[in-house]
Design a protein that fits this description.
There is one protein chain. The chain is of the alpha/beta class. The strands form three sheets. It has a six-stranded mixed β-sheet. Strands 11-10-9-12-13 form a five-stranded mixed β-sheet, with helices on both faces. A three-stranded antiparallel β-sheet has the order 5-7-6. The chain has a domain of 158 residues: Nucleotidyltransferase, domain 5. The N terminus is likely disordered.
Length: 407
């Protein structure tokens, strides 16, 4: 028998196709340790079009720009569509075999999302057993996407010169990043509450060990914050967005595992800048309370449904996570400490230029891209099921760009 004590390999490129742009990250695994080989982001110039061909061109253009910014190795990748492109719902099904469940969830998804079955790509996660009356049922998380949307994403990735190995859900990728240290048997009961605040949607996930037990998208996110600031201060949308970026960059909430949101200072009046900051806070505050209330309902549902351990604290990540006072408002509603964290803690990032603006200095919005690359790591090889396996129905990818280093 050959023992492979030290796994050493360059992993696939993680491609995070978010609402604001694309983020690419490639990791290298050596002896169970991870380091960033290359990373780059490219924002979309305008909101993505709903027209498939134009949407594909915009994504492809952004991806090509990102690929030119850093030295990625090879062309293999794992990608995730925008969270807003996914349809997610928890359902309760009778106990059945894996094969029976695979067939049942397709019909269930079509009924729940009112989309014809042949237009959906569907996967599911068995979250656990729950009591329903005198019966025991399986809590199952449906994850679906329209095939036309997936095809647009895949075509853009192929057009940019990459070879997709699989499509993953963004929340699964971020959960993978944040639970990567849970490898011991006693870690199987560790519960984590993850709140990913993005531009178009906020996703609340609860994990037990490395397994996803609960997920719910909430339609309150950065775009709503921007709109509220724009309306209250009579600013054009771009000016409101830039004001929020400046406020997040100046936020005093540290993004470390030891940090807490409870010490976040309220905006102070005095001077034009302070008055503008307070007005922005007052515009966003009702939305943050609504978001926190929704997150609290998610935690309550999980606690009542599974009656397990509670999380020690809430992990806040995502590009909009550093909104001033968000952590403290979440803590207030959750009755639980909420922390803005750096999801790449423990991963060596010194070898790659992250090309960040000041808002992203804590890398809070790189959890998805890292988790996508991490799917190729030896520690995760048997622990996932893709939303779509590498597309046998897709055309063969073009040759890898000569601008990327050989694997």
């Amino acid at each position: 028998m050959r023992w492979n004590f030290l796994h050493n390999s360059t992993l696939p490129i993680g491609v995070d196709l978010g609402a604001s742009g694309v983020k690419l990250m490639q990791l290298h695994e050596e002896g169970g340790l991870l380091r960033v080989v290359a990373a780059a982001r490219r924002n979309f110039l305008n909101p993505l079009s709903d027209e498939p061909q134009q949407r594909r061109s915009e994504i492809e253009r952004a991806m090509q720009g990102a690929l030119e910014m850093s030295r990625f190795r090879g062309d293999a990748c794992v990608l995730a569509p925008s969270a807003s492109d996914l349809l997610i719902r928890a359902v309760r099904l009778p106990s059945m075999t894996d094969d029976e469940r695979r067939k049942a969830v397709k019909w269930e998804a079509s009924e729940r999302f009112t989309v014809p079955m042949d237009e959906l790509e569907v996967e599911s996660i068995r979250a656990g057993e729950v009591a329903q009356g005198h019966d025991t049922r399986d809590e199952v998380i449906l994850i679906a996407a329209r095939r036309t949307n997936l095809a647009t994403c895949l075509d853009a990735v192929l057009g940019a010169g990459l070879r997709p190995l699989a499509v993953d859900a963004p929340f699964l990728a971020s959960c993978r990043t944040l639970t990567r240290s849970l490898r011991r048997q006693e870690d199987e009961s560790v519960v984590r509450l993850i709140i990913d605040v993005g531009l178009s949607v906020t996703t609340v996930c609860i994990t037990r060990g490395r397994e996803t037990a609960f997920v719910k998208p909430i339609d309150i996110a950065g775009r709503d914050f921007n709109r509220a600031v724009s309306d209250r201060l009579s600013l054009d949308p771009e000016a409101a967005k830039q004001l929020r970026i400046e406020r997040m960059a100046e936020s005093s909430e540290p993004a470390t595992r030891e940090s807490t949101g409870g010490g976040q200072r309220q905006p102070i009046s005095g001077g034009t800048a302070d008055r503008v900051s307070r007005a922005a806070f007052e515009a966003i505050r009702p939305l943050m309370h609504d978001l926190a209330q929704e997150a609290a309902l998610c935690l309550r549902y999980y606690s009542v449904t599974f009656r397990g351990a509670r999380p020690e604290y809430a992990c806040i990540i995502g590009g909009e996570s550093r909104e001033p006072n968000l952590a403290s408002i979440l803590s207030e509603h959750l009755k639980l400490e909420a922390r803005v964290i750096s999801p790449l803690e423990g991963i060596d990032v010194t070898g790659a230029e992250m090309r960040l603006d000041r808002r992203h200095a804590s890398l809070t919005d790189w959890a998805v891209a890292a988790g996508l690359s991490m799917r190729g790591a030896s520690m995760f090889q048997s622990s996932y099921a893709p939303l779509r396996r590498s597309g046998s129905a897709r055309p063969a990818p073009p040759a890898a760009s000569g601008k990327r280093a050989a694997a």
